[in-house]
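A common beginner's mistake is to predict each chain separately and then try to dock the pieces by hand. The better habit, illustrated here, is to supply every component at once so that their relative placement is modeled jointly.
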Amino acid sequence: MREKKLSRRERLKAGYCREILDAALELFTANGYHNVTMHQIAMKSEFSIGTLYNFFKNKEDLYHSLVLEKCKEYAGMQFRALQKDADVLERIREFLSNGIRFFLDNTSLIRIFIAETRGESFNLRSKLRNDARRVMNELDEKVASVMREGVQKKIFRRLDPVHLTLALQGLSEAFLFHWMDYPEAFPDGLQADMILDIFTRGSTAQTAAAGPAAGRG
Amino acid sequence: MREKKLSRRERLKAGYCREILDAALELFTANGYHNVTMHQIAMKSEFSIGTLYNFFKNKEDLYHSLVLEKCKEYAGMQFRALQKDADVLERIREFLSNGIRFFLDNTSLIRIFIAETRGESFNLRSKLRNDARRVMNELDEKVASVMREGVQKKIFRRLDPVHLTLALQGLSEAFLFHWMDYPEAFPDGLQADMILDIFTRGSTAQTAAAGPAAGRG
Amino acid sequence: MREKKLSRRERLKAGYCREILDAALELFTANGYHNVTMHQIAMKSEFSIGTLYNFFKNKEDLYHSLVLEKCKEYAGMQFRALQKDADVLERIREFLSNGIRFFLDNTSLIRIFIAETRGESFNLRSKLRNDARRVMNELDEKVASVMREGVQKKIFRRLDPVHLTLALQGLSEAFLFHWMDYPEAFPDGLQADMILDIFTRGSTAQTAAAGPAAGRG
Amino acid sequence: MREKKLSRRERLKAGYCREILDAALELFTANGYHNVTMHQIAMKSEFSIGTLYNFFKNKEDLYHSLVLEKCKEYAGMQFRALQKDADVLERIREFLSNGIRFFLDNTSLIRIFIAETRGESFNLRSKLRNDARRVMNELDEKVASVMREGVQKKIFRRLDPVHLTLALQGLSEAFLFHWMDYPEAFPDGLQADMILDIFTRGSTAQTAAAGPAAGRG
DNA sequence: AATGAATGAGCTTTCATTCAT
DNA sequence: CATGAATGAAAGCTCATTCAT
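With all components supplied together, the output reads:
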């Protein structure tokens, strides 16, 4: 009974936490870390400021928990995709589709990811960000291992798998941001194949002529 | 003589402005906009706070002037590279080298560029950022026009030049950031060709086999 | 019990507000709006600056609340006097006595009234002052209606009631200020009848009754 | 020659002073002391800030000089009117007309007079204001002496001449302010006789019965 | 455990005044 | 003498955090 009670409490607590984080996410993505006050989060989540501080050490901790959670969500999803029993290109395609869908569902969450991985405050919150960064790094390593597999299977060129990972990420990010800023530039939406196509075949014409190979048809 | 005096004053003023902007740049890149105070900028630049406000309307204006200046510097350099009388790939290669060198010389300035084009404050300062953004957009268009030329000359695949531009940028950014975070990953430094190679030929092995073409040999 | 608790809180809050307003009143009347800082008000009221801003939106709001409160207090008192079931002159006399007593009890509060109705800031805070001004205007109208009644009952001369109101106010103010600046000029204090006497009978000697005097023609 | 030069200089200096004071007057009456900056005065007068400080010790001194000058101008004019070789009522009427005209010509200058004699900062600048106040007090005494003469000549009732002076001022002020705030209330403009009429005969009807004379129409 | 009033350090910004030119 | 850039004290105000209830 004791245990049950605790577990009920814990479930309650987790639920509260959820509501707070959801409210905060909305505010942070809409306005940025510095333009959101604890007061606003308290209002939106319908908890008191004091309660916020019962759940999170301080504003930074709250923000970080948010980022960590989303990173884990994202990374978990992508891990599963990359671990599937499918051929390399298929897994990469799903990886890309997942990424697009994820940021479509959490519009402008990507800005927070970017702020965290590339942004201005990179060196201040570094300690706190480490958890999130570790999660993302692990994902990067997983991607790299898939890339390595692709190289071994001669699907990809004999390049450093880390470079291939970077390339994949860079292309994804660039397309995602452009799509967010100019949605009209992608009348049919952003398709994983747009990115995959460039990733696999590059931009050069002659090669393209030579190789309808990479085509998924 | 009158003129000379005026010009001396103006040179002085410009010099002051320089010192302020340099001090501010260092602080902003190190700590981010919100974590730098006017007091700090005053201290570092060895001017009084009042003087800062004689040169710039407010903190945002100072920051924006900084960003605009660097954007113009960067865009000007790249424009010149892209306008040279050389073949398309050569111009792209210089574009990449320039970018690498620029951010090598202005370490972590890129974080500000990113913060401005992708960062959290994207929707708040948008009005003020417009000048900088316009400069960068013009550069993007220039890049796209070079891409278009490449497509016409059958150097590049028949793809949307804007997509090619995005790809180039995405690849550059990804490599640059990785190099900044893990310099040891590039024992010989970051070379334009690493990026160019992937950009032109993609990752796919078969195509690579087919195409030593793009090789810069 | 719940209710009691709430009410206690509200009473507390109202009490805090009182203390802040009292401290502010003292400072403002002694030094004028622009020569009082929020810091000073915080010190004098023994609250923190933050608390001041919990009660009032900003300095202007605090000041305005103060003015409005005092205006209402004054106007309410005078309204009741003018509505009494007594003859016109009696009501006017009480109106005068009330005014004298009010400004005796709130020494130099009148300076704020003047600053608000006549002062330098007349055109800047006009929007905010409107509440107070409306209250005072309503009182003026009430006075004018009493004047009208006096005219109808042939107690007063057939003059514009608004002019009579102006006259009453002008005389009151002049006497009040002189008394404040030179209390020794009124050894027995300022009596309503001094003002009423001039208001009702003017300055002209009996000879005036014979009055070829005023007639210019 | 030395003398001439000096005198030319002095004339020049006086002229400069004029221009500064004129510019300042306009700004102060329009915005109030605290809402005018030395910078603004410098701009409007087309002198440098440094020059302002050559002519006036500080902002307060500048403001005070302005007030003093206008007080002297006003008092001088009124002195001459009161000293004329005319009967008492005639001199009072001219006094009133002068006052109306003066403040008509210097619209809203009266607000500064009020701020100075009744306003919020009465006790801060008291030292500086003393000159101006002395001038005005002397004028008050002159008015009182005319009142005394009126009493002696049985033109006015046997009342304290100071009270009569107060009454005259209070009536004037009230009418002037009302006229400024509601010009439409005086379709034919503000006439000295409106004030004089009430001043001399008060509001009471019986006297009026004796004298329908005063009616101008 | 939950609350939110109270706190006050610290921010951006203004502007009277000085003084080297 | 005239100038106006430079100054920096001091203002109003915010908001993360605490803690008595």
